[in-house]
Amino acid sequence: MSKAVDALRRQFPIFASRPAPFHYLDNAATGQICRPAADALIHYETAARANVKRGVYRLADEASVAFHKARAEMAAYLGAERPEEVIFTSGTTLALNIAAHALAPRLHEGDEILLSELEHHSNIVPWQLVAQQKGAKVRAIPVTDEGRLDYDALERVVTDRTRIVAVSHCSNVTGAVTDVGRIKEAASAVGALLVVDGAQRAPHGPLDVRALGCDLYACSGHKMFAATGCGVLWGRRELLDELPPFLGGGEMIRQVSIERSTFAPPPHRFEAGTPPIGAALAMGAAAAWLSTLDWGALTEREMALTGRLLDGLSAIDGVRIQGPRGLQGRAGVVSFDVEDVHAHDVCQMLDADGVCLRGGHHCAQPLMDRFGLAATTRASIALYNDEADIDALLTGLEKTIARLR
Ligand code: PMP
Fold first, then answer.
1. Mean residue pLDDT across the chain
2. Is the shortest distance between the CB of 91 and ligand 1 below 6 Å?
3. Rounded Cα–Cα distance for residues 37 and 40 (Å)
């Protein structure tokens, strides 16, 4: 193992506690928690725990200050203009549900919401729910045989009825990275808002949501090496100011009477009830730590590993990559299917060699339909992976195929 990877792994407690062999390649499902995040979570829960926003005693005030710091750390990581643009949620799923329901009043009968065929269910189902309520229509940007968005189809699928475009920044199945600029151009041409599901992009280095040109951006803490149970919805301040709340409850109001309520300004309007405080502090700590890393070098290594995996898979008879074969415009999420072998069998057999993979539809059934498959096997790379992880996968896969065929 290289010195650089070794130093990184020392920042992830799991590597010291799992028995070898341990080749964790299921990072698209969840990343491992980093030490700064684990420390922040444990410190809060065991030594600094109080509810936030309203207490006047010192412990409660300290918790509120720490919570605001986490918001500021996430704002810095995302490239937000102000911490108030960051809404803490339970994850990408809630973030996208808030987005859909808060934008729903802007939809009218016959309006269109444009998604893509490669979306995760959490960027499909919330839009279907609001479309049904409003008599709007859900349409999709088609996907090429290589598992990328078909940008040539934009002219056809973006219409003067398109009000919202919601796409993932990076596919959790094919690894294709969306050219958000191109989508933005098409959305802007018809005055549509742009929502980006950043669940798979956020773990791979700081972002600049303003430069990206989107209106709302969603991501999950557990994929960003923080705790489970927390995520973020970022929104342009001017837009958030105009949006109604989705969930009602404590902490999101200005004034409540039995008949009606008025609401607090963002982000509180969108954070009903006690937020996931410990997990939010962990997310802030992870973001602050990630921001200190050399992402030029890390991205180069992640892409070199992706190339090694793609080359290795291409050389195995009966293995078909479901996604871009080249490195251009893709990230380290690699799906494949094996002729005559079910994805779950592949995953189970590789588990014997300590290789953690995921097999299934990856919450992307429309994409599976597009590929004519029920399932794929997926390997997904994070900053702590190395050549040994990739080679264990490839060797184990060859062994598995020889045994099962
Ligand atoms: N979108 C994408 C692209 C994802 O990969 C995932 C998680 N697999 C989600 C949304 C949902 O994230 P969460 O389960 O953390 O809410």
1. 97
2. yes
3. 5
Ligand 1 near 89 CB (within 6 A): no
Pocket test for ligand 1, best of 120, 124, 171, 173 (most atoms within 8 A of CB): 120
Residue with tokens 């919401």, as numbered in its chain: 113
- Report how far ligand 1's centroid is from the alpha carbon of 91 (Å): 8
Ligand 1: residue whose CA is nearest its atom 6: 199
What are 79-134's pLDDT values in tens digits? Answer: 999 999 999 999 999 999 999 999 999 999 999 999 999 999 999 999 999 999 99
Residue 170 falls in the annotated catalytic set: no
Give, in order, the Cα–Cα distances in Å from 209 to each of 122, 196, 197, 290. 20, 10, 12, 17
Q: Do 88 and 197 reside in the same domain of the chain?
A: yes
User: Per-residue pLDDT averaged across 48-54, rounded?
Assistant: 93
Give the residue numbers spanning the domain of 329: 3-25+294-404
| Same-domain check for residues 332 and 375 | yes
Cα of 127 from ligand 1 centre, angstroms: 15
Secondary structure percentages of the chain, helix, strand, coil, to 5:
45, 20, 40
Say if residues 193 and 165 touch (Cβ distance below 8 Å).
yes
Which ipTM value was assigned to this complex? 0.99
97 lines ligand 1 (CB under 6 A): no
CA of 199 to the centre of ligand 1 (A): 5
pLDDT of residue 238: 97
Q: Do the Cβ atoms of 73 and 60 come closer than 8 Å? A: no
- The full 3-state SS of 27-86, as one line of letters, equals CCCCCCCCHHHHHHHHHHHHHCCCCCCCCCCHHHHHHHHHHHHHHHHHHHHHCCCCHHHE
Q: Identify whether 33 is part of a domain.
A: no
Distance 92 CA to ligand 1 centre (A): 6
Q: Which of 290, 320, 335 is the last residue of a domain?
A: 290
pTM listed for this prediction: 0.98
What is the per-residue pLDDT across 230-270, written as a single tens digit (0 to 9) for each? 999 999 999 999 999 999 999 999 999 999 999 999 999 99
